Structures are given as structure tokens and as C-alpha cells.
UniProtKB/TrEMBL annotation:
GO terms for biological process, alphabetical: protein refolding
SUPFAM superfamilies in UniProt: FKBP-like
Catalytic activity field: [protein]-peptidylproline (omega=180) = [protein]-peptidylproline (omega=0)
PPIase FKBP-type domain segment(s): 6-85
GO molecular function: peptidyl-prolyl cis-trans isomerase activity
Lineage: Bacteria, Pseudomonadati, Bacteroidota, Cytophagia, Cytophagales
Chief location bin: cytoplasm
UniProt protein name: Peptidyl-prolyl cis-trans isomerase
Assigned EC number: 5.2.1.8
Organism: Siphonobacter curvatus
Role, per record: Also involved in hydrogenase metallocenter assembly, probably by participating in the nickel insertion step. This function in hydrogenase biosynthesis requires chaperone activity and the presence of the metal-binding domain, but not PPIase activity.
Location(s) in or outside the cell: Cytoplasm
A Pfam family per the record: FKBP_C
Enzyme class: isomerase
Entry's Gene Ontology cellular component terms: cytoplasm
Length: 171
């Protein structure tokens, strides 16, 4: 069976990324056959270009492709780096020093009530600088891997938008 819209795809992949100022790719994710990834073609949540590259492949086929930042997670937005008053992070008058560390990713809520992950990039005496850009923004993405299985999605999987069982959600 070929990969087309609404098929469940089970695959392995290695993802390597390279920033605009970097010379070499860095491996950031390795999904092997012992714990493959499953997604519904057309609903993966990955960039459209990712699914385009897998379209038509069959079990046993391998892939090797790159996705530019513009086809991937976009460019970095300098305005998505903001400073928040340290007081925002006070719980019962206390600052959790373990939590407020450069590099930590925290779920934050914006003015419209949307949840967004922010990565702490700097901490001063009265402010915390957070970067809300997607961690893969401005990165060139390189995927290699193998298609393990392609099958029809069940009606429940289609209504949930994710795969059940192997490579997916167990519930
Ligand atoms: Zn479900």
C-alpha cells in the first residue's frame, strides 16, 4: 500500500539540523524500529514538505531529504524574544531558582490565553528573557529513514487525528 492521504504510516527516522551559522549537521532525534513513529498522512503536524516527501512511498522504501527553513519551521522572529518581569514567576512570594534557569523550557500563557512554550535565554535581577520561537526555526532539516508499514486509518483514528497502538497513542 502506498502513502496517500489518511493512511497510517509507521516509520523510523533520524533528524539532523543545521543553523545558518553552523558548518555541520547535528543529529537531534533518532527514532528506531524498536519504537517507531506513527502518523496519519495529512495530519502529522509536521511541515507540509515532510509529508510531500513521503507521499507515494511503500513499506521497505527508504528516504533521504532536506527541508529548508522556509518550507520547515520558518525564520526566527526577533520579536518573539521577550522580557517578562521576574515577579511573573513568583509563587507564594518565592522564586523557584531550579525552574528559572537559562535553557529551561516553560509553558506560558499569552494575553489571549494561548499556551506557548518559551525557552529561558537570560535571567537578570528583575527580568526573565524568554524565546518563543519554534526550536527548529531557521534550521535546515535533514531526514533519513525507512517506511515500516502503511495501512488504512480507522474511523476513530481519523476523528482523533492520531494513530492508535503501535507508534501512536495507547488509550
Ligand atoms: Zn485517540
Amino acid at each position: 500500500m502506498e502513502i496517500t492521504k489518511n493512511k497510517v504510516v509507521l516509520l523510523t527516522y533520524d533528524l539532523s539540523i543545521k543553523g545558518p551559522d553552523e558548518e555541520e549537521f547535528e543529529l537531534v532525534e533518532a527514532i528506531g524500529e524498536d519504537e517507531p513513529m506513527g502518523y496519519i498522512h495529512g495530519m502529522s503536524g509536521y511541515p507540509e514538505r515532510f509529508e510531500d516527501n513521503l507521499e507515494g512511498l511503500k513499506p521497505g522504501d527508504t528516504f533521504d531529504f532536506s527541508i529548508s527553513p522556509d518550507e520547515g519551521y520558518g525564520q526566527r522572529d526577533p520579536e518573539a524574544v521577550v522580557d517578562l518581569p521576574l515577579d511573573v514567576f513568583r509563587v507564594n512570594g518565592e522564586i523557584d531558582q531550579e525552574l528559572i534557569q537559562v535553557g529551561n523550557v516553560l509553558p506560558m500563557t499569552n494575553d489571549e490565553g494561548q499556551q506557548m512554550n518559551g525557552r529561558i535565554v537570560e535571567v537578570s535581577n528583575d527580568a526573565v528573557w524568554m524565546d518563543f520561537n519554534h526550536p527548529l526555526a531557521e534550521m535546515l532539516l535533514h531526514f533519513t529513514g525507512k517506511i515500516l508499514d502503511v495501512r488504512e486509518a480507522t474511523p476513530t483514528e481519523l476523528s482523533h487525528g492520531h494513530v492508535h497502538g503501535n507508534g501512536g497513542v495507547h488509550h
